[in-house]
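Quick check before the chapter quiz. The format below is the same one you will see on the exam, so make sure you can read both the input and the output lines.
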Amino acid sequence: MSVLRSIGALGLAGALGGLLTAALAVPVVGGGGIATKNAVNHFVDLPPAPREEQLSQVTRLLDRNGRPFAQFYEANRTVVRLASVAPAMRKAIVAIEDARFYEHGGLDVRGTLRALLTNTQAGGIKQGGSSLTQQLVKNILVESARTDEERDRARAPNLARKITELRLALALERKYRKDEILERYLNIAYFGAGAHGVEAAARRFFSTSAAKLTLTQAATLAGAVRMPYSTDPSLGREHRERLKARRDLVLDRMAGLKWITQQQAAQAKSSPLGLRLRPEPGGCAQSDYPFYCVYVQQELLSNPVFGNTAAERRRRMARGGMTIRTSLDPVAQRAAEQAIRRYVSPKDTEVAAEAMVEPGTGRIRAMAASKHFGPNPGNRKNGPRTTFNLAADVAHGGGQGFQAGSTFKVFTLATALQQGWRFGDGFQTPGSLTPSQGYRNCAGRPVNDPGTRIHNASGEGEGGPHSIETGTWKSVNIFYMMLERKVGLCNVVRTAKKLGIVRADGQPLREVPTFTLGINEMDPVTVAASFAAFAARGRYCRPLAIVEITGRDGRRTHIPPACEQAIEAPVADAVNHVLTGVFDKGTMKGQSIGRPAAGKTGTNNGYTSAWFAGHTPDLAAAVSVGDIRGSYRYPLQGVEIGGRHYGSVQGASLPGPIWVESMRKALRRTEPTRFHKPDMSRFGGGHTPGLEKALAEEERKRRMHPFLRRHRRLFEWLLGQDAITSPRRGRTEFTLEWPPLRRHHPATHTAPPAQPSTAPPAQARPQPPARSRPQPPAQSRPQAPVQSRPKPPAQARPQPPAQSRPQARPQPAAQPRPQQAAQPRRQPPAQSRPQGPAQNRSQPSAQQRRQPSAGDRSQGSGSGRAQGRGSGRS
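Here is the expected output.
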């Protein structure tokens, strides 16, 4: 009926208005209440309808394929239209809450009188007199309350609240049709077990939707509304028994109103509740991919795109009701998780994290970490769980990050190529470097550090020539410190910033000489996005997790990538060309994903952390490893991670294998793509003096027998330098056959060794055993001290060539001359032994792991030591 009928009823019963309304809240109210005239005027002059805030709803996250993987909410609610609610549910809720709902105009006088009599006789509230519209008003006031005071006022059991509630109900009846009021009530009501609204209740109680509710199920939910806490079925058997009693009451009421038959009621009452309670996970801790979920949450709260102010973004987040499609790729996500799980255990204090980013769009395809997300039992600081988003920066729920190490050398490389350096360009490097001059930050101030000494490979090495390729492949710290000085520290910093580099803690980048060695703390998402720019030919895209948002009104908002050309495409191609060599010529030699890839290892001072970052044209990824308790207090030395012991963790020994395995699986359904070839007219033709000779000497030493490499110094002392370093010695004789070494031992003091080296091994082998074994005790031991030990190495080394060359020249010209021609070329490296021992000392560390990644020793420890000694004090 109309609102006027309700007002007319109030006019006829004006004197009783106050008494009737008060009786709903209190059984007996003394005094006459409100005067008739005032009561009529009070209900004729109605206020505006109550302010309605958008109802809090569930926000759901979908992966790139449209499948949900997380949801979060302030209230577990999904708003539906009345047409999407089963007719049985509509009848059940009206029958038990307000049977004359479609007859009155907001105030049911008959129902109010009935409730008054029932409550008076019982001495308490046994029956509610509030109409369904009045209940809706109460829920609206509670839901719209912005302070605790407003919320308490909306629930206060007093006469003033009841009168206000009644007036607003009448105003609401003017504003909406009956079906609209019923729809709003079904969506706002609390049904218990954490379910707000009929759709959430249907899913929570029966694992179905509101549209598919049966008569029995509808009666159960309708019975729960009046006492949602005491009938919560998730709390135990007694609560379920009370819920069943309420269900049967609803069925009897519906039968009494002849909305169902007595037979239908009896049949429904004889059936069990049929509950199929389904958990409704809320929050990222219960998500399948919690770290990605946290990233999306924090993006919604921090990005101005989703609200002009932080308060506005928080309100939008709390109200929810959004469906957010993300860029998460389940294949890449599982690949990252499995690779990390294989190498690092959640129980380890050392943590690994990985992020994968799509080049050209910045879309984050995966975020994974070695620990589970959430608080540890007893809120312990250390355990298998963490509340930090280890793959992200502080703004997205992460921690302070780990120093990025030698991964930062790529920014110096890109800067040099941009300034005109060519492949093969390089220079001579010393055994150590003190950054005492030539470094200025972007403010123009000198940032030299004369108190720091930079070394290569944990202090090993005595310098030598390096090009931009070999300096990158071997990750030579001194070379890159000198290259950074040549191209300008500020220019390198600017390149890094263009490629999206910002510190994990949000603080300004530290612009110090060791910037190129990775002093700044970073997170995997930022580093992966930066390397993705090289894969995209210099086009940098801001990391993007949210692709599309569908609001509660059904409108879709597409979130486009935010990209810009950070460096020239030819420069990026040249960088990729150099970085591909890391896999077949550098620190990652022996590790491959079976398709073109480029990357860079990174290890920090004292092994405080380790990194690997790399990319293909289709996907980029970065992996970090460090101790969650504090990387400086707990370095990665002598540690057991994932059940494996590591003497020291380097970029190629743990992050590298994780990267390789995860990328191989993530791209298994993607056809391989090749990098663009570099412009050789622009970048080809460089030259580094002395590099060819140094590389030839290095290759010859590499081909030595491992035993001979390890003990080269000893044999040079015993046999004379020429016996080991002379290029006339063939690989077969020295790398495989030990007897020729012993046979040749006395020959270092007598005849030249040219003929035995040219003779076939099968002919040379029968002669030495009879003659050479007796000779060393009689000849070599007395003579060795006379010729070698008393003299300094600088004097002893030139003598063997001086003695052997004249004796070798009288040999037939057809055989020794080719060897003699090669001997002067290789003699300088043999004499300039400062480079030889450095290479020799670094070789054992390359063998100590037996893993292909052990070659990162020169890179990892080098970048770490140099960074620590240089950066730690800068």
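If your answer matched, good. The CA atoms of residues 537 and 569 lie 5 Å apart.
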